[in-house]
Amino acid sequence: MVTLNKPASHGSSAFRRIFLVTSVLLALPSFAKAGNSLENAIEKTQPCQSLRVKTGLFTIGVDRFEKVEIEELAMDVKGDVATARAIGSLTCRTSDAAALKGNVSARLSFDAEMSLATCVLSRREIKLLSAGGTFGDIVKALREQISQSLGDGLSNQAKKLCQ
């Protein structure tokens, strides 16, 4: 559900912020890339880069972005507060030069709240719902680190759009 109410007390500047952030989070089509705007914003954060695990002998890096798909998205804007909830999947793979090749796919949920007046995220929660692929068990073991990394990247993109 999307509700846009023009804030009476904050003028057109706050309304423009609401419109810009809402447009991106609504996943409007992007003519420059194959994915929608939200999927493209997630790709720009390079969420797979943190997926490196050092074993005693070598490092396994499932750090190459492959694809992201947004299954569900709900956005609500009331005054200067925007709330967004999304469910989607992310797929990462090893580099072509990796000694041990493989991939990982993860299904995630995202829930956040942001002040459009200050561009500050007041709440952010990312949960790993499931993981699979060659290195799915590694992702499950590192779920907190991966959630933090993805959340930081998305937060930075949202703040850039808001300002």
The helicity comes to: 25-40%
Topology order in helix (H) and strand (E) letters: HHEEEEEEHH
Tell me which oligomeric state these chains represent.
single chain
Across the major sheet, the strand order is 3-4-5-6
Briefly summarize what is shown.
With 163 residues, the chain is an alpha+beta fold. The protein has helices spanning 11-25, 37-44, 136-141, 143-162, and strands at residues 52-54, 59-61, 64-78, 81-93, 103-115, 120-132.
Describe the structure.
- With 163 residues, this protein is α+β, with helices and mostly antiparallel strands.
- It is built from 4 helices and 6 strands.
- The chain has helices at residues 11-25, 37-44, 136-141, 143-162, and strands spanning 52-54, 59-61, 64-78, 81-93, 103-115, 120-132.
- The strands form 2 sheets. Strands 3-4-5-6 form a 4-stranded antiparallel β-sheet.
- β1 and β2 (59-61) form a beta hairpin.
- The longest helix is centred in the last third of the chain and has 20 residues, at 143-162.
- The model is unreliable at 1-12 and 23-34 (pLDDT under 50).
